[in-house]
Design a protein that fits this description.
3 helices; globular; two-stranded antiparallel ribbon
């Protein structure tokens, strides 16, 4: 699997899952997650608390997982432009703001993400800046 670092990050963000046709199918854990409302719909988002080994070395970016609350649909996994705040090199911490997550959700929806439909995890890269 070419994207093992991001999948490992997803396992830390989500509580359980399994590999299916080279993608991970999961649901987010409520502990440590935050709620956000975009367009009248509530979503849950979460950043992995501890970095993966690659994130700790600043070789893999911070990842944010997003799902719609109240349904078992597709999880959106977003590669962020910043390093994980708990990396081992002490690079400057750039927080993930709710406004950034809201913009990412709007962009993903515009690009065809269907959070209520069952299926595999959708991967996306957040724009820098």
């Amino acid at each position: 699997m070419a994207d093992l670092g991001l999948s490992a990050s997803l396992v830390g963000i989500c509580g359980y899952g399994h590999l299916t046709s080279r993608r991970v199918v999961m649901a987010l854990v409520e502990k440590g997650s935050r709620l956000i409302t975009v367009g009248g719909v509530t979503y849950r988002w979460r950043v992995r608390g501890r970095p993966t080994y690659a994130q700790a070395l600043c070789e893999a970016p911070l990842a944010v997982a997003v799902e719609q609350v109240g349904c078992k649909g597709r999880v959106l996994l977003v590669r962020m432009p910043q390093d994980h705040p708990s990396n081992w090199f002490g690079t400057p911490v750039v927080p993930v703001l709710p406004s950034t997550v809201a913009a990412i959700v709007r962009k993903a929806l515009a690009e065809g993400w269907q959070p209520t439909q069952p299926g595999t995890t959708i991967h996306m890269t957040a724009p820098a800046g």
